[in-house]
Amino acid sequence: MWNKSDKISTCDYTMAEAIVFGAPFDGTTSFKPGARFAPGAIRADFDGLETYSPYLNADLSRVNVFDKGDLEFPFGNAREVLNIIEKATTEILDDNKLPIMLGGEHLITLGAIRAIAKKHSGLNVIHFDAHTDLRDEYLGERLSHATVMRRVWEIIGDNKLHQFGIRSGEKDEFEFAALHTNFYPKLDDSFDITPIKSLKGIIKGEPVYVSIDLDILDPSVFCGTGTQEPGGILFNQLLNAIHALRGLNIVGVDITELAPNYDQSGASTAVACKVLRESILTVLPGGDFNNE
What tens digit of pLDDT does each residue of 58-77 get? Predict the structure, then answer.
């Protein structure tokens, strides 16, 4: 089931509070594939990243995280891939650890949500993305990275899906979002994290899953993805948004849609590595020196 790795680990599995694992799948990618190569690229470059975050005054060496490696998937079977992700996430949850999943395309989120929603009732999902991902079907398929948040909504219900940075989708998706999700699109030159801070007061104490589709970033910052959308946010804006989640009851995280083969400079993979480090240190605040 696993291709094992410990490149991101700071301790063994038994001691870990959070488990990083890869889901290298891009079988429903609608434009340019390659996200399956992201977990390996992130691990290869993570060695070159400092463990210390000057943004949070926190260090990975002071938190307990274990890299369990990549899941092994059959080719061409999205339903079985989701089953494998759900089973793996359930195992991590049963061991009272927090799952942090590296995609892969965005459909993988559904497998994790299926497991987490069974353990945590009243689950909220915070969704950072360029795309609505709210189609009911795409080219006749209900399981797609273009439909993933519609399937998530079917599990968690109205006003539990909180969407930030959206700037692309069909008209029907925007209309659906207006009725059923908490929707904060990115349609101008601003990206204000005030709604995130306000949201914290509403859902504090409730379980929260965070899904970060890296194509929320502008292609000038992050071109290594299969579905580039001009008009995105800058890296520091995403970082501020992630940091603003500190204090929430975060029960799972994923980072998706890096396709490293479309950015030969390696800059997009470097961005993904830093997002991973800051996400880990956001959900495991024990690494904050200011908490001593």
Answer: 999 999 999 999 999 998 89
